[in-house]
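Q: How do we represent a protein-ligand complex in a form that can be generated token by token?
A: Start from the inputs.
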Amino acid sequence: MSNFTKIIIHWTAGAYNPNSSELGHYHYLIDSNGVKHNGKYTPEDNLNCYDGKYAAHTGGGNTGAIGVAMCGMMNFKNKSSVGPYPLKAKQVEACFKLCADLAKKYNIPIENVMTHYEFGKLHPKTDSAGKIDIIYLPQYPNVKANEVGGFIRNKIRWYLSNK
Ligand SMILES: [Zn+2]
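Then emit the structure tokens for the protein with zinc ion bound:
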């Protein structure tokens, strides 16, 4: 048992490599080559958010929540206007694998691994309401906005059972 309750998956809405502000907002960031960058704060810093020293990645849901972000999707509007930094295949797979590793390490049930978009839907009175990460995966254009979270959880389950 750990005190971590969930993992929230994001995209940064930035470019393909993390900038210093993004490093302060997520625990782990995956660049377009699938390389993991450690953020400024550790997951343990989010067990207590009252001291102000934590990664603020999910408004209304930071305590006990690990924030994982894929770098990219700046200026995404919709599937026909994805902006200059659409997520790459290597990157999304590395993200799913990292989430599997973290869920295992911290004993977090896979149902509690969700996208920021899903968290916002579940908590409509928080700042996270209306967030669009993640409603679209460029590699899987037929997966609808409301299906992306379930799709990702299935990918994570696959990684957990295939290593
Ligand atoms: Zn987000």
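Strands lie at 6-11, 28-30, 36-38, 65-70, 113-115. Residues 10, 116, 131, 133 surround zinc ion (CB under 6 Å).
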